[in-house]
Amino acid sequence: MKYRPLGRTGWMVSEVSFGAWAIGGTWGQVSEKDALAALNQAVDSGVNFIDTADVYGDGRSERLIAVLKKQRKDEIVVATKAGRRLPRQTIEGYTRENLTAWVNDSLRTLATESLDLLQLHCPPTELYRPEVFAILDDFVRAGKIRYYGVSVEKVEEAIRAVEHPNVQTVQIIFNCFRQRPADVFFCAGPPKAGRHSRSCAAG
What we know:
This protein is an alpha/beta fold and 203 residues long. The protein is built from 6 helices and 8 strands.
């Protein structure tokens, strides 16, 4: 397994990560035994970065990851997401009250005192503004999250997100059918003065 730095977190994460959407049960029934077997096999193979979200199985994915971390002594970084519990994706839904509730729910289901990495889960493009990230900065200062980033669908959203200095990760759709991030975002050249370099988790 090869590892690379994740933003400015100081973490060296595996180039191959474990996407935990399926073990939430969204893509069909997955038993707890099979889910934990898959997670353990991933860790045994050198994977130390797991991607999940609070809505994957309405918390089931996070709960299974909590079981894994309780059973293993390995250093495992868990990235979870928040925002898709909203019935409609609107800027008005990303209040301090809602964000606090989502973070507290994930802290409980992951059985941890601090989330390794919290990513906003494909929110509206207009959301990428300082006041929202200021709320996440408050969570960092309070010790509820260590770092934060975003999960986006559009390259333009990724570019806007990394303008905010404390955004550590950008998760963006990138596959054989959707190659635009490679041309416009990944290879966009050196960062502007005063802005940190881009470090992206593609998924």
